[in-house]
Amino acid sequence: MSETWTFVCAAGELLPGEMRPVFDEVTGTPILVFNLDGDLYALEDRCSHEDFELSSGAFDPAEASVECVLHGARFDVRDGRALCAPAYSAVPKFPVRLEQGGIWTRDDRG
Description:
Pfam families: Rieske (PF00355). InterPro entries: Rieske_2Fe-2S, Rieske_2Fe-2S_sf. The protein has 110 residues and is mainly β. It has one domain (6-97): Rieske [2Fe-2S] iron-sulphur domain (Rieske Iron-sulfur Protein, 3-layer Sandwich). 0% of the residues lie in helices and 40% in strands. It is built from no helices and 10 strands. It has strands at 6-10, 19-24, 29-36, 39-44, 58-60, 65-67, 74-76, 93-94, 96-99, 102-105. The strands form 3 sheets. A 4-stranded antiparallel sheet has the order 2-3-4-8, with no helix packed on it. Strands 1-10-9 form a 3-stranded antiparallel sheet, with no helix packed on it. The mean pLDDT is 96.
């Protein structure tokens, strides 16, 4: 678990409907941050089915989902739950905060 917050980008650089990958240097965790209609969410940038980066896939703001390009597994960006096969396990969700004009996240798993 990291107590250190990782800077993602300036608040104005992640617009609604966009996603941005970042790397938590403390824990070595790839994180993907989403702007869903102004609400920010962060998931581990790793498909629970095949250990492939979700950032290569498509973010669908209308469905609040991200799709893995490898086999088509989809995940809810709000809570990380798997929405369809071949993935059955959720991907970890991380906290996101807006502070000092920037977007920050961290791997908070204990």
